[in-house]
Amino acid sequence: MDEETGGRSKKLLLLLLVAISLQSLSGLADDPSSSNVVKDAARPSSSSKMDREVFFVCLVVAGAAFCSALLFKLWQKKKREEQHARLLRLFEEDDELELELGLGD
User: Fold this and answer.
1) Which positions, given as ranges, span the membrane (predicted)?
2) Kindly report the CA angle at 46 between 41 and 52, in degrees rounded to 5?
């Protein structure tokens, strides 16, 4: 179940990044000042600059969220392995106790 949720979150994150990318690209394509590329090549328009800044901020936030989710999954896996090892040690101690007391078959 965790793997399925992780796969969904990765797909959702990828879809979000693609949507943001397409939105910023379509915003740049609809910019009327982009037709005067030669005239305004030295100085980008403020809306174009703002679009890029918003895109990069969203990209950083999405990257941070992805890294956080990945680190959380690794932490969960480590804790699960520790609990499993503790459980195995508990049963091994019970077996040793049974052998010492002669309760085994």
Assistant:
1) 53-72
2) 90
What sign does the CA torsion over 62, 65, 71, 77 have? negative
pLDDT at residue number 1: 47
Per the domain annotation, does 58 fall within a domain? yes
Residue 73's identity, in one-letter code, is K
49 domain-assigned: yes
0.85 exceeded by pTM: no
Contact 63, 14 (CB under 8 A): no
Q: Helix (H, G, I), strand (E, B), or coil: what is residue 103?
A: coil
Q: Give phi and psi for 103, each to the nearest 5.
A: -85, -10
Domain total of the chain:
1
Q: In the prediction, which pLDDT does 33 show?
A: 54
- To 10 degrees, the CA torsion angle through 5, 9, 14, 15? 90
